[in-house]
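Exam prep: given the inputs below (a chain plus 2-(butylsulfanyl)adenosine), describe the expected output before reading on.
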Amino acid sequence: MTDSILHKIVALRKELDQHNFLYYVKAQPVITDIEFDQKLKELEALEKAHPEFDDPMSPTKRVGSDITSEFQQVKHQYPVLSLNNTYNEGELRDFDTRIKKETNLQPEYVCELKFDGVSISLTYEKGILKHAVTRGDGVQGDDVTNNVKTIRSIPLKLQGSGWPDEFEIRGELVMPFAVFQKINEERAANGEELLANPRNSTSGTIKMQDSSVVAKRQLDGYFYYVPGEIRLSDSHLKNLELAASWGFKVSEHTRKCGSMEEVLAFIHHWDKERSKLPVATDGVVIKVDSIAMQNDLGTTAKSPRWAVAYKFKAEQVETRLLSVSYQVGRTGAITPVANLEPVLLAGTTVKRASLHNADIIAALDLHLNDLVKVEKGGEIIPKIVGVNEAERHPLNQRVEFITHCPECGSTLVRDEGEAKHFCPNETGCPPQIKGKIIHFISRKAMNIDGMGEETVELFYNQGLIRTVADLYRMEEASIAGLDRLGEKSARRMLDGLEASKKVPFERVLFALGIRYVGETVAKLLAKAFKNMDALMEATFEQLTNVNEIGDRIAESLINHFSLEANCALIADLHNIGLQFQLSEEEMAGSTDKLAGLSIIISGTFEKHSREELKKMIEQHGGKNVGSISKNTSYLLAGENIGPSKMEKVQKLGIPIISEDEFMTMIG
Ligand code: IVH
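Solution:
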């Protein structure tokens, strides 16, 4: 019986691996997503019922786990080199001349796209993925294996045959534009700061502590180099073809070129066409194909002498600055925006560019009607990088930053050390009021079903709402029948509002939109003060005594609660029935016995899972940290702790406690 179950499990794993490959590497799925999910669920159920057949390489493991990954530093077997960059064709020809001179041979080149992401080094032992390590300083990097395992296009097990027992391959992790855009749309809706570009987002994602979040971010990886002494074949291109046959994603836009003319044609083609690719690229890498020639040419301390990167120039155009307008955000931050004469840039028409803040405008010495140079930063958000001063008409007027809010007329303020100007009229400035309400209803805050930005806009314009408390006083009769709103949607909203009365205190606190009080800070505050009254009465000292609450946050809270309108709103919401204290459940058993202590968990434990221990640390007011530093208070040690970690702890003199000692500490 169990034999046949094992067979079934193994067969399902194999089948799902193959579908993953067809979908994520080949982009040629042969079954529907629903069919795939059904099979995956079936496998999950079988694995759950038969933990004895567990396999860390199972496709079910791609969803990640929330076990904190403490990134160990791993030394690279072969140092990770970088590439020499060139920006013009002359330098490329020099490269070609040097290669010919040094080898006395006519080289063949392989041209590849240069992916703009984060480089990664994978090692496989007997065909099984063992380590995924970031570039780090080139000598050693972070072991991010758990996170990389969630990337569906990366094989956990190699396919085919012929791979060496010990095998390393290098490539680039990237976040597709579509994923990047989706994340930013979500962040915008939640009033969160936007991610700058796909590369930064990739590097932020791969260093995340929680691999289940990484799994949701849908990274991808392209592989381009097999380092080391083992000779797979005599040609770089053949190496890549072998890697592709073992299941790696190798860019299909890789070409062998017999001459510099062909190389240049490849470059010109992709300089134009790259905007159509699903991921960011910033150049073309040109490599000598023959491995024998590569070995002859060798490397410098920094980079191989058989390869060079041609970097694309960020596409730039000139257009006229028509005017500058100023947007007021939810927090009152003022963002200047340049309105431009529409112009085509990297495939899209650009009409506006962000100017960020007053310093940027001053640094550009911007004048109205100037001819400005516009570039796409990270290919996404256009920015003004310079002014054509020779073309400036002497009567053009300098752009002066506004002194008053364009929406409500209040005098703007700029705090010391802040790049941005702010409108201080929190409770009377329309975009701030609307922005606060939009934040309040957003998914991570009160998560009000059936409401969105447009409905808030509509209700505000109809004069139905001025504060978030007004939301709870709306009636079906007054909202149904409004522009595009049927009875059903009205009902759904009101039900959503009613349900939100159960949203826990920490999220209500986050939903209030107090400056610098994001999700994490709200959680810390809720835990430390337990209810709103205590938080509102807290002194500056009491606030900053809470771990991770600094002066800036404390000041912002005190400032917020010093305004009568804010206190009145909180009282109003309290009467409406929102949660302004921790639930009984959250209160039960929580103490501050570990207040101020940073504890690192390492190894495996007998009585509790690491997740349980982490919860206990937090419940008792301590902080669970991911990496060892001189500020770590204790190492909570289980079995099998890595020797390098032990050494570090001992060197820093950090006390080590066992699971039992920990339990005594928290009583
Ligand atoms: S080859 C020894 N090929 O660019 C050869 N690198 O500045 C090592 N990159 O660290 C690199 N696309 O992160 C190579 N097709 C490609 C690449 C590529 C992107 C990145 C990689 C490397 C950096 C070099």
